[in-house]
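Deliverable D2.4 — example input (structure tokens):
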């Protein structure tokens, strides 16, 4: 049977007989010590030896034997006691002490007491030497009770128990054996010393101490072992000391409650080998760099390992399964991971170098001062993934042997890092080079920081966010060089990349992030940059390839450049923006810049920012392809508050086939835009004073001027809107292919003293509208509306708009040109300081209506060639005021080749030299001139207007004066005369009641009255007169009053083909060549001559 160790103190009854007496079960069997080669065999009972002389010694010689008999259940107590007051100096057993040899499982018990005798004795045995072997046969047990002295065992075998009855020492010297029992103390907690430091191999299998009854000290050395790995032993001691002899000392106990201290000067070693073992206590060393602690599987150390200035030589993890944890701080020169399990350093401070000799994992919950290495590339995992803030002061891996994995969370590594993969969370800071074979990844909400403050950083390998993570951040900080040789955000883009390094930062591969913030320092991107937002707020940024950036913001003096073309909104469906703002902020492109290639692009240059396109030699292309949109803002965007302007340094701003816009919304008082402008787009002048100094003749789009002032050499494009703002041209305004709209108080100032034109060049078209109070077109020279051949121009002045011309103006200048001007509405006006010609050689129309006014030096309707021109003045307060004379029809080139018409209706007024001037009608030969009072002959009668002139003079052409109005008492006050010699002059009265009040005796043309009533109250001359000339007509002429005289030199017919009535009354007289009444069939004629002095004379 297997004996069980039991440590106890067994007091013995003292023998009262003579000294040096040996008793067997109460029987005196001898009074001399056992001598050499003698033996003592007892079957049961007790053997005791007492000594009165405290200084005496007792020796049981070598070769003798103390043997417990072979009876079943025999019990032997061997007591060696002193009854003096001082210790026995030495007790020596040179003999073998054994239970029944050769007999097993008799359950015999041997107890050895080594302490003071009962009764008067108080002294201990100072030293007991067991030079022989103490053997408990299987099934038997030996218990040794030790007092205050020392017990030194040369060898043991299956000894059951050792008990400390006092604060004594049990020492195993050069013994090889096993203590199968327990080691206890009954002398109080922290008493008894178990010393194995001088032994060979000693295995103490049982428990050592107990909770509340711990040993004071256990000394280990060599290859000793405490506990049995198959048992759940426990060890309780104040201190366990480990010496420096060779071999590995092992503790196989399940629970060890003790402080462990390495005391040697060389490297002693202590191993905890039992799975799930717990060490409660600190592990220290007396000498810095001495002692190695080896831990196994799933073990726990609750205390500290080493101390500052007294680090262990080594700490090694040998376990084959996970879970070994050191709760306290660790100070060890080398921490070796020699297993594939996961071990944890949970303390706040860890000092020492970690080395992986196997592909295991070490978890750090605190700081590490030291390096982390591995003996084989791609092995070992360093895990700092708990949420605590930790620092590794040293490097991790080497360039030849990198770790398999590094897992970080809120940590800082000051040395270089080499690993197959690196996982980060929280805020992780790298202060040196980083090399990964696979990738460095950052978890959700994490921030990875590369800090070059203390030296250059080179980052080799891919740096990504974890797949699916959209809120990871990468920061580049420091003040020296930082170089990234792998893809950034390739598999999963970072949410934010902050480049804060004040030194140079180089990205040699592609970079992807939702937002990139680049501040001080020099940033170089050699790969493709993909970002929703890129904010360059300081320093210099260089792009060496094409990029995909949603919004690029260059601010605070930042410099951004790239070697190729700048593409903003290049891809179909893409929407991208560039902002360059702030003094010295600049974007420099090595090639063209395309804003809106196939997608949507916006470029804003503001507050002193500069965009330079290949040093000003290349183009800025806007909205290149159909379906794209492109916008260039100088200052702010439309709808935003104006800010300072920036500068575009480009040869040409070229609008493409898409929808392109150039916005000027700035606060400058004189801003020069030097680039040429071509293509079809929109220019919006919103705020500030803008000078278009480049060649814009190739621009074919729309210009809107809604605020501030736009100064141009001339107007270009198809449409220009000036609303509440000012457009100024250096040259005379030319609207060739351009429609100009001035509204809401807008002003266009044409500063060129030459003649401006609306549709002025051959085959061109142009229009201008000036609408609203305060809206104005001011010409420093004259104005042509419809200029060269085949051109067409239109001018509309309405709702209080005004036009001022400072020289002669023409509507329809050259042959085959057409021009039309409308001035309508109260306070709408066209003021000409020179002559106004309506139809010089082209067709022209002037309409003055609803209170509109026109003024000129002289007025001319129709000039040369085969065209027709007309002017209409209609509506109350509508007026054409002419300082000189008015000519209707002039300079014809053939009969009927050109006709000028003036219609004055509905209260409209034509003032000719304030009523004292002359209106010429068909002034020259081969020209037609028509003056309509009311409506034209073929139109419906309307209310009459007024010709305020002294004379209406028919010239050598074909002139016609039509009265077709609705007035019942209309006075025509101008004298009708002849300034020419031909007879193609006609007064044609169609409707209304008209009173000829002036002396028109100089008129030599025909008079036809086919409708209404013509009252002659003064003199009228003429040739042929037909009253009721045409079939169905019905005309009336009254010649009434003594001053009324109608004298013609040809026939007078009253009812030629229609109905005619002539009444001569109250002294009126009519004289003609021949006369007829009712000339033709179905005609009717009536002549009445009544009143004194009235007469009709036919010569």
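Example output (designed residues):
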């Amino acid at each position: 049977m297997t004996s069980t160790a039991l440590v106890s103190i067994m007091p013995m009854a003292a023998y009262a007989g003579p000294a040096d007496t040996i008793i067997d079960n109460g029987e005196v069997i001898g009074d001399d010590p056992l001598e050499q080669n003698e033996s003592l065999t007892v079957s049961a009972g007790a053997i005791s030896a007492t000594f009165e002389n405290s200084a005496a010694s007792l020796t049981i010689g070598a070769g003798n034997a103390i043997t417990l008999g072979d009876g079943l259940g025999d019990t032997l107590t061997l007591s060696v006691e002193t009854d003096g007051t001082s210790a026995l100096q030495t007790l020596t057993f040179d003999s073998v002490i054994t239970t029944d040899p050769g007999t097993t499982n008799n359950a015999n018990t041997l107890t050895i007491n080594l302490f003071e005798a009962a009764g008067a004795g108080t002294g201990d045995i100072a030293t007991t030497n067991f030079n022989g072997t103490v053997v408990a046969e299987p099934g038997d047990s030996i218990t040794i009770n030790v007092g205050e002295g020392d017990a030194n065992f040369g060898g043991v075998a299956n000894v059951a128990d050792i008990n400390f009855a006092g604060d004594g020492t049990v020492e195993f010297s050069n013994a090889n054996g096993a203590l199968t029992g327990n080691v206890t103390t009954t002398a109080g907690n922290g008493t008894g010393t178990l010393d194995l430091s001088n032994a060979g191999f000693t295995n103490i299998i049982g428990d050592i101490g107990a909770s509340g009854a711990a040993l004071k000290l256990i000394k280990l050395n060599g290859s000793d072992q405490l506990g049995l790995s198959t048992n759940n032993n426990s060890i309780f001691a104040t201190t366990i000391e480990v010496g420096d002899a060779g071999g590995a000392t092992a503790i196989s106990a399940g629970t060890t409650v003790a402080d462990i201290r390495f005391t040697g000067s060389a490297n002693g070693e202590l191993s905890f080998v039992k799975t799930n073992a717990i060490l409660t206590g600190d592990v220290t060393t007396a000498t810095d760099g001495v002692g190695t602690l080896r831990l196994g599987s799933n073990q726990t150390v609750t205390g500290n390992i080493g101390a500052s200035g007294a680090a262990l030589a080594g700490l090694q993890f040998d376990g084959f399964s996970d879970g070994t944890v050191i709760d306290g701080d660790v100070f060890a020169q080398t921490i070796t991971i020699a297993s594939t399990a996961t071990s944890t350093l949970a303390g706040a401070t860890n000092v020492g170098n970690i080395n992986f000799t196997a592909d295991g994992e070490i978890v750090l919950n605190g700081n590490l001062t030291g390096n982390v290495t591995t003996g084989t590339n791609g092995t070992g995992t360093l895990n700092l993934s708990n949420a605590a803030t930790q620092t590794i002061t040293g490097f991790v891996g080497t360039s030849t042997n990198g770790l398999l994995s590094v897992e970080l969370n809120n940590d800082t590594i000051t040395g270089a890092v080499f690993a197959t993969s690196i996982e980060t969370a929280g805020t992780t800071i790298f202060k040196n080079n980083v090399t990964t074979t696979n990738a460095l990844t950052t978890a959700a909400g994490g921030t990875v920081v590369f800090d070059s403050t203390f030296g250059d950083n080179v980052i080799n390998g891919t740096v990504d966010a974890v797949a699916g993570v959209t809120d990871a951040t990468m920061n580049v900080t420091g003040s020296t060089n930082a170089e990234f040789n792998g893809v950034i955000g390739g598999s999963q883009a970072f949410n934010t990349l902050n480049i804060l390094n004040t030194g140079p930062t180089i990205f040699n591969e592609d970079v992807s992030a939702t937002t990139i913030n680049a501040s001080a320092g020099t940033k170089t991107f050699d790969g493709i940059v993909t970002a929703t937002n890129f904010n360059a707020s300081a320093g210099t940024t260089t792009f060496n390839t094409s990029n995909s950036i949603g919004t690029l913001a260059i601010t605070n003096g930042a410099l951004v450049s790239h070697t190729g073309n700048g593409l903003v909104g290049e891809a179909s469906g893409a929407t991208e923006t560039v902002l360059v703002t702030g003094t010295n902020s600049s974007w420099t492109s090595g090639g063209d810049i395309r804003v809106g290639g196939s997608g949507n692009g916006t470029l804003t240059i503001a507050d002193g920012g500069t965009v330079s396109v290949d040093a000003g030699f290349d183009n800025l292309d806007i909205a290149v392809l159909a379906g794209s949109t492109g916008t260039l803002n100088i200052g702010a965007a439309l709808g935003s508050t104006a800010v300072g302007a920036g500068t575009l340094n480009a040869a040409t701003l070229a609008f493409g086939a898409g929808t392109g816009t150039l916005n000027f919304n700035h606060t400058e008082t004189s801003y020069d835009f030097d680039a040429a402008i071509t293509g079809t787009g929109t220019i919006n002048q919103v705020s500030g004073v803008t000078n278009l100094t480049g060649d814009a003749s190739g621009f074919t789009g729309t210009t809107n001027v809604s605020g501030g002032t736009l100064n141009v050499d001339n107007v270009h494009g198809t449409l220009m809107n000036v609303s509440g703002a000012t457009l100024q041209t250096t040259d005379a305004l030319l609207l060739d292919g351009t429609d100009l709209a001035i509204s809401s108080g807008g002003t266009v100032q044409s500063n060129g003293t030459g003649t401006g034109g609306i549709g002025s060049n051959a085959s061109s078209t142009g229009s201008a509208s000036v609408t609203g109070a305060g809206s104005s077109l001011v010409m420093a020279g004259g104005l042509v509306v419809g200029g060269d051949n085949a051109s067409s121009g239109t001018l509309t002045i309405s709702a209080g708009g005004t036009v001022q011309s400072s020289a002669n103006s023409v509507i329809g200048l050259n042959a085959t040109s057409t021009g039309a001007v409308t001035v309508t509405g109260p306070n709408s006006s066209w003021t000409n300081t020179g002559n106004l010609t309506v139809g010089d050689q082209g067709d022209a129309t002037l309409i003055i209506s609803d209170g509109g006014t026109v003024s000129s030096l002289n007025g001319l309707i129709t000039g040369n060639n085969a065209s027709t021109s007309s002017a209409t003045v209609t509506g109350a307060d509508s007026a054409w005021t002419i300082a000189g004379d008015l000519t209707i029809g002039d300079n014809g080139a053939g009969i009927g080749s050109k006709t000028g018409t003036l219609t004055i209706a509905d209260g409209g007024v034509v003032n000719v030299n304030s009523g004292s001037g002359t209106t010429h009608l068909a002034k020259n030969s081969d020209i037609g001139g028509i003056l309509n009072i009311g409506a034209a002959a073929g139109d419906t009668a309307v209310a009459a207007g007024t010709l305020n002139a002294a004379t209406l003079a028919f010239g050598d052409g074909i002139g016609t004066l039509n009265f077709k109005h609705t007035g019942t008492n209309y006075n025509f006050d101008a004298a009708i005369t002849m300034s020419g010699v031909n007879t193609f002059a006609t007064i044609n009265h169609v409707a209304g009641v008209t009173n000829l009040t002036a002396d028109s005796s100089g008129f030599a043309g025909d008079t036809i009255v086919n409708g209404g009533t013509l009252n002659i109250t003064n003199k009228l001359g003429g040739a042929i007169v037909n009253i009721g000339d045409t079939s169905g007509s019905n005309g009336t002429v009254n010649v009434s009053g003594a001053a009324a005289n109608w004298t013609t030199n040809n026939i007078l017919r009253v009812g030629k083909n229609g109905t005619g009535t002539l009444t001569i009354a109250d002294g009126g007289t009519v004289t003609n060549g021949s006369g007829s009444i009712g000339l033709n069939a179905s005609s009717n004629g009536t002549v009445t001559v009544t009143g004194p002095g009235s007469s009709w004379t036919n010569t």
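The chain is about 0% helix and 50% strand.
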